[in-house]
Amino acid sequence: MRMVDIIAKKRNGDTLTEQEISFFIKEYMKENIPDYQVSALMMAIYYQGMTQEETASLTKNMVESGDIIDLSPIKGHKVDKHSTGGVGDKTTFIVGPLVAAAAIPVAKMSGRGLGHTGGTIDKLESIPGFKVELTNQQFIDNVNKFKLSVVGQTGNLAPADKKLYALRDVTATVDSIPLIASSIMSKKIASGADSIVLDVKTGSGAFMKSLQDSKRLAEEMVTIGNQLDRQTVAVISDMNQPLGYEIGNANEVKEAVEVLQGKRIEDLRELAIELAAHMTILAGVYQDYSEATQSLESLIDNGDALKCFMDFIEAQGGDITVIQDLSQLPGSSYHMEVKADQGGYIHEMEADEIGVAAMHLGAGRATKDDAINHGVGITLQKKIGDYVDHGDTLAILNSDQEDVEQIISIVKNAYTIKPEKATRQKMIYEVIK
């Protein structure tokens, strides 16, 4: 079998066999196939696409290129959640405790962030003392005891994906739906969960800007998961504006805790309950969506989900006094207001630009070596559908820099204000099963 023949076959729009895909991945990992040939194949896939069977085969071979986490010592049906990323996305801190409070084990491995704000692990490190590195036995013991543990990614999960992604990044082949789907699903399947719920974002702050593309990606990932014996559900959710009102690391932990305390931050609460509902149904705890959502609402309202969050934080060394008094979380030196230049209704928000502004404040990383400032970020005061007068505060920058005029401009320009009334955004567009 020759790589050049595989490239030519895909270039011509033909379907690759399981044997051809397996050969390509295995020989590339052995460094018997050069980057320039793999780049040519990635470009052929970019233009010709892949069938669902090809994409599932690619995913399976990427999974088998490295470690597969064994979660069998954890009792019960393990369900994982994955988000395709967005601005202000802190649902893990609500969903995890909610599902744990329903007695379903959540054994989650998360990464650090690159871009707008930190990843789940960076945000948890806002809590003094919190340990993201546990031994495998500690991780398993914590899930068995508290039903929830979140640690940094360990082991050598889907190393073929890492190699392919680095190549795609420099050859303009990142935004291919089969390649995105196989990349995401290879890591999720290697992480060992029995079932997977995907939060696929759509809109200005999402990787997929159009609902059509988001739906295609969701359908592709659900098909892969189901073909590889993982029950998978995808929720397509809105990212035309940041989720909730806080962007930043400690800011987002604080807002998530406030939701667990019962504060009605409607879009954040709605999405968290939606994701948790599908996780509980996949685990077989609830039989239908209505029963699941009602039960999860009560787990917030009666404090059970908050208790699960506190137990989880304490079990991993975190100082729970900062959860009891959120003002003790890391903060910033300066608080600058972004004012509206005109009156009217907010029609649009460029969510990705607001995320970039947060990164400039130090809440995210431009490169993987950048340090995260846990105490800085942005607190939104107005969102789509709200009315503002000239001079009203649109957002507050929480900064350790005194001169943030350029960042103020970025945030101000992210808002589109018009005289006529604006329709508030829908949170959930579709559920793909």
Number of domains: 3
The total count of strands amounts to: 13
Q: Any idea what the radius of gyration is?
A: 22 Å
Helix content: 40-55%
Task: State the CATH class of the largest domain.
Answer: Alpha Beta
Number of helices: 17
CATH architecture field of the largest domain: 3-Layer(aba) Sandwich
Mean pLDDT: 95
What proportion strand? Answer: 15-25%
Q: Order of strands in the sheet with the most strands?
A: 1-4-5-13
What's the topology here?
Blueprint: H1 3-11, H2 18-29, H3 35-48, H4 52-63, E1 79-83, H5 92-101, E2 106-110, H6 120-124, H7 136-146, E3 148-152, H8 159-169, H9 177-190, E4 195-202, H10 211-227, E5 231-238, E6 246-248, H11 249-260, H12 266-282, H13 289-301, H14 304-315, H15 321-324, E7 334-339, E8 344-349, H16 351-361, E9 377-380, E10 387-388, E11 393-399, H17 405-414, E12 415-418, E13 428-432
Parallel strand pairs: 1-4, 2-3, 4-5
Antiparallel strand pairs: 5-13, 6-9, 7-11, 8-10, 8-12, 9-11
Helix pairs in contact: 1-3, 2-4, 4-9, 4-10, 5-12, 5-14, 9-10, 12-13, 16-17
